[in-house]
Specification:
The chain has 111 residues and is an all-alpha fold. It has helices at 14-17, 19-40, 46-68, 74-91, 97-107. The chain is elongated, with a radius of gyration of 17 Å.
């Protein structure tokens, strides 16, 4: 069986190819930590509840984008799958069958 090379073109690092993925992972992780911190302090004011609601909506948007983004490298695909696995373990949640299918389609070229 012949292996397929997935190296970045000369002069382009693998990290650059997945720049959007890394930005989403970073933003999602920071936002999730911020939400968790806000939730541990019961929001006392309507302004605090409003800020929390906005952050939750942004997290949901980023999560949907993260599920569908197609990594450009094997390293990016592995990182995405690991991040999603850790997120599900930490939040003690799961994905429905159609969401799992979307994730797998997004990384299928690296499987």
């Amino acid at each position: 069986m012949q292996s397929i090379s997935r190296k970045a073109p000369a002069g382009i690092s693998e990290k650059c190819l997945d720049q959007e993925l890394w930005a989403i992972l970073d933003r999602h992780a920071r936002l999730s930590a911020s939400i968790q911190a806000l939730q541990t302090k019961v929001p006392a004011t309507s302004e605090a509840r409003h800020i929390l609601a906005i952050k939750i909506l942004e997290e949901q948007f980023l999560r949907k984008h993260l599920i569908d983004i197609r990594p450009s490298t094997n390293h990016g695909a592995q990182s995405k799958l690991i991040y999603l696995s850790l997120m599900l373990a930490k939040t003690r949640t799961s994905m429905n069958e159609s969401t799992v299918a979307r994730v797998m389609r997004s990384v299928e070229r690296f499987l």
